[in-house]
Automatic annotation (TrEMBL):
<dbReference type="InterPro" id="IPR050080">
    <property type="entry name" value="RNase_PH"/>
</dbReference>
<keyword id="KW-0819">tRNA processing</keyword>
<dbReference type="GO" id="GO:0008033">
    <property type="term" value="P:tRNA processing"/>
</dbReference>
<comment type="function">
    <text>Phosphorolytic 3'-5' exoribonuclease that plays an important role in tRNA 3'-end maturation. Removes nucleotide residues following the 3'-CCA terminus of tRNAs; can also add nucleotides to the ends of RNA molecules by using nucleoside diphosphates as substrates, but this may not be physiologically important. Probably plays a role in initiation of 16S rRNA degradation (leading to ribosome degradation) during starvation.</text>
</comment>
<keyword id="KW-0694">RNA-binding</keyword>
<keyword id="KW-0808">Transferase</keyword>
<dbReference type="GO" id="GO:0009022">
    <property type="term" value="F:tRNA nucleotidyltransferase activity"/>
</dbReference>
<comment type="similarity">
    <text>Belongs to the RNase PH family.</text>
</comment>
<dbReference type="GO" id="GO:0016075">
    <property type="term" value="P:rRNA catabolic process"/>
</dbReference>
<dbReference type="Pfam" id="PF03725">
    <property type="entry name" value="RNase_PH_C"/>
</dbReference>
<dbReference type="InterPro" id="IPR001247">
    <property type="entry name" value="ExoRNase_PH_dom1"/>
</dbReference>
<feature type="domain" description="Exoribonuclease phosphorolytic">
    <location>
        <begin position="159"/>
        <end position="224"/>
    </location>
</feature>
<dbReference type="InterPro" id="IPR020568">
    <property type="entry name" value="Ribosomal_Su5_D2-typ_SF"/>
</dbReference>
<keyword id="KW-0548">Nucleotidyltransferase</keyword>
<dbReference type="InterPro" id="IPR018336">
    <property type="entry name" value="RNase_PH_CS"/>
</dbReference>
<feature type="region of interest" description="Disordered">
    <location>
        <begin position="1"/>
        <end position="30"/>
    </location>
</feature>
<keyword id="KW-0698">rRNA processing</keyword>
Amino acid sequence: MTLPPRTGRDALTPRPLSVQRGVNPHAPGSAHLKLGRTEILATVSVEDKPAPHMRGKKEGWLTAEYAMLPRATTDRQARERNLQNGRRHEIQRLLGRALRASLDLRHFRNQTLYVDCDVLVADGGTRVASVLAGYAALHDFADRLIHAGKLSEWPLAHAVGAASVGLIGDELRVDLDYAEDKVARADLNVVATDAGLLIEAQGGAEEGPITHAEYVRLLTAGVEAVGALLRELHRQL
């Protein structure tokens, strides 16, 4: 098998990351993130009403939505209008779990936070890039609340990020682009904190079973890649 080439990075180095916060003047928190050629716009909105299942609870709630714009890919995709689209629903649940893990929701009692992640350009890793963009938007949101005097305590309990990792032939690579992702014989999307605490691992084998040792290598490399990406993200925030 001929491995897709990598330009300017080795197998364990993520793609270049850049982030700009506060890009949407109407949103209380926002970020535009690039991971290689993948681009995500994330915004935070607040509704002063609890989610139905959180009425009477001491915590607020965070929910996430994900969408891919029609020309995010090489060919135009129909605009996503069906909220029950299987892939979209799966990604939204992943984003919600990841971003809720970053927040101390006791600061938002009787409120619902919405994090919208829109894929502007897709070149692999859109869900992991959306986790990073969503966290960056929440960081922008939290910073604005502190500076406006609306909160006296930093509400982000954990720095949360995500990275993709896969086996292409016998080579382990992190942060797969589209060309790599489509030929990987196994891949994982790993969500973790900057301290190396695992939140979620999502994925599996594509071309037959893999060994326990291979899975552990994937998971370990994914957690390490998350740490590297979050260090770069915080450097720019």
